[in-house]
Amino acid sequence: MHGGRGGHGGGPGERARPGGPDGGDRAGEAGDGDRAGGTGDGGWDGWRAAAERALYGPGGFYLRPEGPAGHFRTSVHASPLFARAVARLLLRTYEDLGGPERLPRIDLVDIGAGRGELLTGVLAALPDGVEVRPYGVEKAPRPPGLDRRVEWCAEPPRGVRGLVFANEWLDNVPVDVAETDPSGVPRYVEVRADGGERLGAPVAGADARWLERWWPLAGLPAGRRAEIGRPRDAAWAAAVGTLAGGLAVAVDYAHTLAARPPFGTLSGFAGGREVRPVPDGSCDITAHVALDACAAAPAAVAATELLTQREALARLGVSGARPPLALASADPAAYVRALAGAGEAAELTSRGGLGDFGWLQQRV
Ligand SMILES: C[S@@+](CC[C@H](N)C(=O)[O-])C[C@H]1O[C@@H](n2cnc3c(N)ncnc32)[C@H](O)[C@@H]1O
């Protein structure tokens, strides 16, 4: 769904995910070079376990010093307008919770916080006098030089009142992959550390029920694939469950039941480019998120909205509209500034790009 790709100024590219087959090589004949890495039979493992190890295990992709921003751009890196919009959302959430009269300070929890870039931008954008308690939830260690107010933690804090925000977190919660065999039976896809794949056991139990409900595959022609989003549903439900009051927002490239990609979306990213997904720690391993399934996972929410980033940012005052031409003659410097801002906003809200991302908003 997200067609744009490529870095700006030689930097890392946006993580654009194709909707088609991932192009990964099938495993060759037995004996064609199993490598160390898998914990399963002869180095074979399900994609969930393999990606978990490759991304977050010792020497894992996301624990490397360069961080995600060394490999691709998210909305956070694309423009400071994104952090300013999140600051606005935080202030609105504060108002909804009754403001400083009812709540001496508001919590801001960024899950999958990268190197704290979003928190840094939000703190800079907030007006003086707003009391905020910021948390960065990350598997990677606290980045040097981060604002001392930020509490850096491995798990989301519980009982928070405020805004829980997760930009491009859920796509990096590892999932298993299913593929139909020639009889139309969905089977787990197994992978080796070199990226070779083979079909394993039929998908069973809770995973099979998840597929049936959210991404039906059974009976389809051979080679149809789905990512089994159950771990993401659970991760999201747990994140929403940490809120004592406020709003939880997950932002990601997403699909819904009406339009699941027929061959799945598993992909790899490294150094600003899309690469073959190989679970050896050399690249990001990601797949679009079934955000409608995540939306149904939390036990109790007061309200749910699923909208595009374009719609969500428009509500927060970010649009790609060009400034009025009259400004060019009245105040040329202001016009140039406004034009640059409009360019950044256009990237955040673009069709076929970041603007198509899903925003799942749930109020507690
Ligand atoms: C694609 S990056 C996004 C970083 C940042 N939110 C942004 O938008 O630029 C995903 C981040 O989520 C982190 N992450 C993934 N699973 C996590 C978990 N269960 N708990 C904390 N952090 C996690 C990864 O380490 C990585 O830094």
From TrEMBL:
Molecular function in Gene Ontology: methyltransferase activity
Gene3D superfamilies: 3.40.50.12710
Coiled-coil regions listed: none
EC number annotated for this UniProt entry: 2.1.1.-
GO biological process entries: methylation
Keywords: Methyltransferase, Transferase
Entry superkingdom: Bacteria
Bias (Basic and acidic residues) ranges: 23-35
Keyword field contains Lipoprotein: no
Record InterPro entries: NDUFAF7, NDUFAF7_sf, SAM-dependent_MTases_sf
Pfam families, per the entry: Methyltransf_28
Region Disordered, residue ranges: 1-44
Biased composition (Gly residues): 1-13
PANTHER family from the UniProt entry: PROTEIN ARGININE METHYLTRANSFERASE NDUFAF7, MITOCHONDRIAL (PTHR12049)
Name of the protein: SAM-dependent methyltransferase
